[in-house]
């Protein structure tokens, strides 16, 4: 399957399969998140749970491919991310197959972007939030999109000390900024 989408002024093309999340079109929550992100050239960006690469490829166009790290546990998603990085001329992105970010050697990210699975238990988003906090530089931001509000709001406040919430097209976009080295207490 092929998806063509204009995102942030770039006409992008993504190859995908029925085994990947949202194979027929870029997920509405992902597009909502991308519409709100303020990318700056040179920012170090982590696309956590990258799927076939819509977020990471978009970020690479705006901040420079070498500054973008894309992580997913699914080998097929990683394969499609690599194909899509090449297809969209951002081959210098770093694409890693990993179950989370524990094995990632990079840290001090300016942005971590995530559309976590929210139809299951909260073990994956819990790990993404807690481990993501430790990989952000002071002043760095975690942006996370979901349809579920209360658990995420409470978890982000407990870790970051505060969170901004944007309601967009039925989704909640959470924006949490790291202001201190350790979790809020």
SSE layout:
Elements: E1 2-7, E2 10-15, H1 28-36, E3 45-48, H2 54-63, E4 68-72, H3 75-87, E5 94-97, E6 109-114, H4 123-135, E7 136-146, H5 150-160, E8 164-168, E9 171-177
Parallel strand pairs: 3-4, 3-6, 4-5, 6-7
Antiparallel strand pairs: 1-2, 7-9, 8-9
Helix pairs in contact: 4-5
Question: What would your notes on this structure say?
Answer:
- The protein has helices at 28-36, 54-63, 75-87, 123-135, 150-160; strands spanning 2-7, 10-15, 45-48, 68-72, 94-97, 109-114, 136-146, 164-168, 171-177.
- The protein has a single domain (2-177), classed as Rossmann fold.
- The longest helix has 13 residues, at 75-87.
- It contains five helices and nine strands.
- The protein has 185 residues and is an alpha/beta fold.
- α4 (123-135) runs parallel beside α5 (150-160).
- The strands form two sheets. A seven-stranded mixed beta sheet has the order 5-4-3-6-7-9-8, sandwiched between helices. It has a two-stranded antiparallel sheet with strand order 1-2.
- The termini are far apart.
């Amino acid at each position: 399957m092929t998806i063509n989408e204009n995102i942030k002024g770039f006409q992008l093309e993504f190859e995908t399969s029925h085994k990947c999340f949202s194979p027929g079109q870029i997920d509405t929550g992902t597009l909502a998140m991308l519409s709100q992100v303020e990318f700056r050239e040179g920012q170090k960006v982590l696309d956590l749970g990258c799927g076939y690469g819509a977020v990471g490829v978009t970020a690479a166009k705006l901040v420079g491919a070498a500054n973008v790290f894309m992580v997913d546990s699914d080998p097929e998603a990683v394969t499609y991310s690599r194909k899509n990085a090449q297809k969209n001329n951002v081959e210098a992105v770093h694409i890693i197959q990993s179950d989370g970010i524990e094995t990632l050697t990079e840290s001090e990210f300016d942005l971590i972007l995530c559309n976590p699975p929210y139809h299951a238990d909260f073990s994956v988003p819990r790990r993404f939030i807690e481990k993501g906090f430790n990989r952000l530089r002071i002043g760095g931001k975690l942006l996370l999109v979901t349809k579920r509000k209360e658990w995420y709001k409470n978890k982000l406040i407990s870790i970051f000390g505060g969170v901004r919430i944007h309601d967009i097209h039925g989704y909640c976009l959470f924006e949490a900024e790291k202001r201190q080295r350790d979790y809020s207490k």
